[in-house]
Write a structure and sequence with these properties.
Length: 122
């Protein structure tokens, strides 16, 4: 391998590893379920499965720009609103995106951690 080819691989390999990690995370990230929408609607009236899935999509798209997104079950459901609010400024999230991400993470975390839905701001 020539020196130029080696340098090219040194530049491309880290990007490939990061891209692979993001794809793996997105694949491991749970999807919302119909039961999640019903529980979320108790806390946030009118929430649908499509709303929760959009929250998942926005979470993957926006949060993966700076880091590998955490799985919902990585934190208690009650912790997610503060975490999302903190990161919202850095990610320059629109208020509706912040709300949809929060709904997805809180609801999915509660299901996966077998926790009750927390009392979070509506």
């Amino acid at each position: 391998m020539t020196r130029s080819e080696t340098n090219t691989w040194r530049a491309v390999l880290p990007l490939t590893l990061v891209a692979g990690a993001l794809v793996a995370c997105a694949a491991a990230l749970a999807h919302a379920e119909l039961a999640d929408a019903a529980r979320a609607a108790q806390r946030w009236p009118g929430t649908t499965l499509a709303d929760l899935e959009r929250g998942r999509e926005v979470y993957v798209a926006r949060c993966s720009h700076c880091h590998v997104p955490r799985l919902p079950e990585a934190y208690p459901a009650a912790a997610w609103p503060a975490l999302v609010a903190k990161m919202s400024n850095q990610a320059k999230l629109a208020p509706e995106d912040e709300q949809e991400i929060t709904r997805f993470l809180v609801t999915t975390s509660a299901r996966l951690r077998h926790e009750p839905m927390p009392d979070v701001p509506r």
